[in-house]
């Protein structure tokens, strides 16, 4: 009965993970999109998208081959829509990437089930471990997003599974006689697979080396045991021979990535100089000036803040307790050995003891190495979730809590803290954190593609296709960077952008520009000047001076409600008499920005009630209108508490 209940609980958690993947519009970090879908869509479409510095063809720091490997369904979906003559909607592109990440995250579940300690209660222990893993917000929120860290975590999980096979091989002589040559052949197979996974992980993120280091160290030591001979020279020669047998898999995967990257970046399979994306990224990160552009952090941040956030405060507390008791146990064990009272353990226990040491090293060694770098983000520690969960689940439900003298009350306290923290963080990062950005992009994409019935962009409006001079300028302000492939309709390679009934606006991201500066910018460019989303302001002004008709242009501003109040005040300070400033067209929510909670509270307090809170914690799509434009617009917009209309 208990096993059935835990199995049902795991099934519920799987459904919850899928829902977080396909319905969670929380926006955690721009790398979620700009290091995955934005780069892939830019290659397979003629639509002008934003290519970040990592994908500079002169010196790329990210492997496009690796992206295509882990986001192949996205590529297939885009080309399938091309084949039927349609442009994939932004929501379908969103689903393709999230679904791929969801299935990639199942690798962690598969490996966790295989690594659970064998016992008479193995199935029950397996479901308990899977429930602990499945309830982690790192799995529910981070692994279900197209971060490269999720692929890195999946590859590390497979490395741990292969390492377990090598550990079993090392203890095979205790179970039954295994010929040495058979053990060597198995070691070569396992090591070849590890080298192949290591090469793939290296091109996903060069930090994969730090996570795989404990596994590689143990496998290397296990190989030396299989090569022991009478002389050191013959042992070294045999070991070198075995290593040469395993290298082809590493070389093959590396060459495959290099050639594919060369084709995708430079249009030919081989190019000079050799294109090594991980090496370029390593060089970039070794330059302190580059890291300063992305933000520097204290070197203790991973240990004190990031690890408790990603792994869970209870897991981190348990880890400190585990290390302390291990240090005490070492002293007791040494005393027993001196007195001849050391207790012999069976082979299965020896295997699990070795694996626990590897799990612990896989958590501590990468954190120590990554702490050397001053740029530290919580998601960098995502691969440590599986080994830490295996240790924590065994401490709570396995035989380890009896040896550690963990009482029932302590165990319940740790589990309660674990579940409470991960539940709160799952809701925050899956649904609330900048959660209105993606719905805004979906709405704009549907309006531009003619799929939706967005009232703010009617087909008969002055920006319609009938007017060749009509233009649309969408300005993002005080939001995360908007991924262009989720805004602009994608067109196949070789087609002209803007053909047919599809509208291609200018996309401008002003980031955290001060309100006064943006107000001045809106006054000076109160018309759309270009259809290209990547042109400079000078190019836009030059194009406008060449005779573009600005009478039918529109400027739309996408910004949080709390920021628009400041923008309205800045527009009032211009000293000009205007009939209309900002007109609300649509609102999307919820939008929770942890850096600006006081501003949201201030807007909410202006008018009591939950309706005002809903408006305050939202992203507004508003139109900026000057006197000339206001005279030509005869629609009455709905009022908004935080965005004022003046007459």
Automatic annotation (TrEMBL):
GO CC entries: endoplasmic reticulum membrane
Enzyme Commission number(s): 2.4.1.-
Name of this chain's protein: Mannosyltransferase
Similarity-based family: Belongs to the glycosyltransferase 22 family. PIGZ subfamily.
GO biological process: GPI anchor biosynthetic process
Protein's membrane topology: Multi-pass membrane protein
PANTHER family in UniProt: GLYCOSYLTRANSFERASE, GPI MANNOSYLTRANSFERASE 4
Transmembrane regions: 193-220, 232-257, 306-329, 413-432
InterPro entries: GPI_mannosylTrfase
Protein origin, superkingdom: Eukaryota
Annotated GO MF terms: alpha-1,2-mannosyltransferase activity
Keywords: Endoplasmic reticulum, Glycosyltransferase, GPI-anchor biosynthesis, Membrane, Signal, Transferase, Transmembrane, Transmembrane helix
Pathway the protein contributes to: Glycolipid biosynthesis; glycosylphosphatidylinositol-anchor biosynthesis
Stretch forming the signal peptide: 1-24
Disordered as annotated region, ranges: 490-509
Location in or out of the cell: Endoplasmic reticulum membrane
Main location: endoplasmic reticulum
């Amino acid at each position: 009965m208990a096993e059935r209940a835990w199995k049902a609980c795991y099934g519920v958690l799987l459904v919850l993970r899928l829902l977080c993947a396909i319905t969670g519009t929380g926006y955690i970090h721009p790398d979620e999109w700009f290091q995955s879908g934005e780069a892939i869509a830019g290659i397979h479409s003629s639509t002008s998208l934003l290519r970040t510095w990592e994908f500079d063809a002169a010196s790329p720091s990210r492997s496009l081959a690796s992206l295509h490997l882990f986001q192949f369904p996205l590529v297939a979906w885009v080309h399938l829509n091309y084949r039927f003559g349609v442009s994939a909607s932004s929501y379908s592109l969103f689903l393709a990437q999230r679904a791929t990440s969801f299935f990639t995250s199942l690798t962690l579940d598969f490996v966790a089930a295989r690594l659970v300690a064998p016992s008479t209660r193995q199935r029950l222990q397996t479901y308990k471990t899977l429930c602990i893993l499945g309830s982690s917000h790192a799995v529910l929120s981070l692994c279900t997003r197209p971060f490269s860290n999720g692929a890195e975590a999946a590859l590390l999980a497979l490395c741990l599974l292969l390492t377990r096979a090598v550990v079993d091989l090392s203890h095979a002589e205790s179970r039954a006689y295994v010929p040495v040559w058979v053990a060597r052949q198995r070691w070569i197979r396992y090591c070849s697979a590890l080298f192949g996974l290591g090469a793939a992980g290296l091109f996903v993120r060069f930090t994969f080396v730090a996570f795989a280091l404990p596994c590689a160290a143990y496998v290397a030591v296990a190989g030396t045991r299989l090569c022991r001979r009478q002389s050191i020279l013959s042992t070294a020669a045999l070991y070198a021979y075995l290593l040469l047998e395993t290298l082809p898999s590493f070389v093959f995967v590396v060459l495959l990535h290099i050639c594919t990257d060369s084709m995708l970046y430079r249009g030919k399979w081989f190019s000079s100089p050799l294109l090594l994306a991980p090496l370029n990224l390593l060089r970039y990160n070794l330059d302190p000036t580059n890291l300063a552009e992305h933000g520097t952090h204290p070197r203790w941040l991973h240990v004190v803040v990031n690890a408790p956030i990603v792994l869970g405060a209870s897991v981190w507390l348990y880890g400190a307790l585990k290390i302390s008791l291990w240090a005490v146990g070492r002293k007791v064990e040494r005393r027993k050995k001196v007195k001849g009272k050391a207790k012999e353990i069976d082979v299965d226990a020896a295997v699990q003891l070795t694996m626990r040491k590897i799990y612990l090293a896989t958590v501590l060694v990468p954190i120590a190495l990554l702490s050397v770098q001053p740029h530290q983000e919580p998601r960098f520690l995502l691969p440590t979730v599986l080994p830490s969960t295996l240790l924590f689940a065994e401490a709570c439900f396995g035989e380890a809590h009896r040896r550690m003298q963990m009482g029932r009350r302590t165990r319940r306290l740790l589990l309660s803290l674990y579940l409470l923290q991960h539940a709160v963080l799952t809701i925050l990062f899956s649904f609330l954190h900048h959660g209105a950005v993606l719905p805004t992009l979906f709405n704009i994409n549907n309006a531009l593609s003619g799929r939706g019935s967005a009232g703010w962009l009617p087909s008969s409006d002055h920006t319609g296709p009938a007017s060749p001079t009509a233009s649309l300028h969408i300005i993002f302000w005080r939001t995360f960077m908007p991924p262009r492939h989720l805004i602009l309709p994608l067109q196949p390679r070789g087609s002209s952008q803007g053909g047919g009934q599809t509208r291609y606006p200018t996309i401008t991201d002003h980031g955290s520009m001060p309100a006064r500066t943006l107000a001045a910018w809106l006054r000076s460019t109160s018309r759309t000047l270009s259809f290209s989303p990547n042109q400079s302001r000078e190019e836009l002004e030059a194009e406008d001076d060449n005779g573009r008709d600005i009478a039918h242009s529109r400027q739309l501003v996408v910004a949080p409600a709390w920021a628009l109040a400041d923008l309205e005040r800045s527009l009032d300070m211009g000293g000009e008499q205007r009939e209309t400033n900002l007109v609300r067209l649509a609102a999307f929510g919820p939008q929770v920005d942890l850096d600006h909670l006081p501003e949201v509270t201030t807007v909410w307090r202006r008018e009591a009630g939950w309706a005002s809170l809903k408006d305050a914690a939202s992203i507004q799509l508003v139109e900026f209108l000057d006197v000339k434009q206001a005279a030509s617009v005869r629609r009455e917009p709905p009022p908004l508490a935080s965005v004022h209309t003046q007459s």
